[in-house]
Amino acid sequence: MSRSEQRTSPENVPKTIIVGGGWAGLSCAVQLAKAQYPFQLYEASRQLGGRARSAKFGQYQIDNGQHILVGACQGTLHLLALIGIDEKAVLHRQSLDLKWRHLNQTEQLHIKAADIIAPFHLLFAILNANGLNLKEKTNIIKFLLYLKIKKFTINQDLTLTNYLKQHSQSERLIDFFWEPMCLAILNTPITKASTLIFFKVLKDSFDQQASYSDSLLFKQKLKK
Ligand SMILES: Cc1cc2nc3c(=O)[nH]c(=O)nc-3n(C[C@H](O)[C@H](O)[C@H](O)COP(=O)(O)OP(=O)(O)OC[C@H]3O[C@@H](n4cnc5c(N)ncnc54)[C@H](O)[C@@H]3O)c2cc1C
């Protein structure tokens, strides 16, 4: 056995301490177990799962923190496969199809991706969107091209609302297009969302294969 093999073989590796049994800690535990490396996991609460967990409210068992995934969540999908869960058994996959209506407005936004290669699936979705006029569609496409040239990065983070206002996105576009996108993608109000994180997810979901922008809806409860 070579010196480097001796150092990395499981019996020579010191025990890893994992603090927290949420998805991140549990993913880490699965990977270490797979590599047969010793570890110890500490969780402060009585239940594993962290923010994505099932809790009892009276007679109801309520799931929290896992409503939707996108096709770009490759790490999560690989992890499911690794622990022997068939994606089709637990998730319903559909291509991007977002309908949105503000509470006090009658107008509806509907964007639906076509079954064609990326990024044309998204281009199709924007050009055919119901609820946006031609000027708004052109504005969104120009903005996305600008982001692609900038490699979806910015020098200093700011809230998504502020960034969009600084980049000629109208109030209506922000309310009607970017806000639902932000809620769907980050589960965070646009006035609080980090532009950096939003762009990272935008890049992962829309600048890769078309299937990365699919929605994956849970078919099963967290706890049987
Ligand atoms: C309402 C809601 C809806 C969501 N919906 C979605 C969704 O649809 N799709 C999606 O992808 N994501 C969703 N999320 C986000 C997702 O649930 C989280 O990103 C994910 O669960 C975070 O996992 P984590 O392991 O990083 O952190 P956490 O889940 O926060 O886990 C951290 C764990 O560490 C423990 N801990 C902290 N400090 C210590 C300590 N000192 N010692 C021991 N233990 C400690 C905590 O008790 C906790 O269990 C949602 C979140 C919420 C709240």
Which secondary structure elements does this structure contain, and how are they paired or packed?
Blueprint: H1 3-8, E1 16-19, H2 23-34, E2 39-42, E3 53-57, E4 60-64, E5 68-70, H3 74-82, H4 87-90, E6 91-94, E7 97-100, E8 109-112, H5 120-127, H6 134-149, H7 160-166, H8 171-186, H9 195-206, E9 215-218
Parallel strand pairs: 1-2
Antiparallel strand pairs: 3-4, 5-9, 6-9, 7-8
Bound molecules: flavin-adenine dinucleotide.
Describe this structure in words.
The protein has 9 helices and 9 strands. By secondary structure, it is α+β, with helices and mostly antiparallel strands. It has 2 domains: 3-50, no CATH class; 92-213, no CATH class. A hairpin with a 2-residue loop joins strand 3 (53-57) and strand 4 (60-64). The protein starts with a helix and ends in a 6-residue tail after the last strand. Residues 19-25, 42-45, 50-52, 64-69, 187 line the site of flavin-adenine dinucleotide.
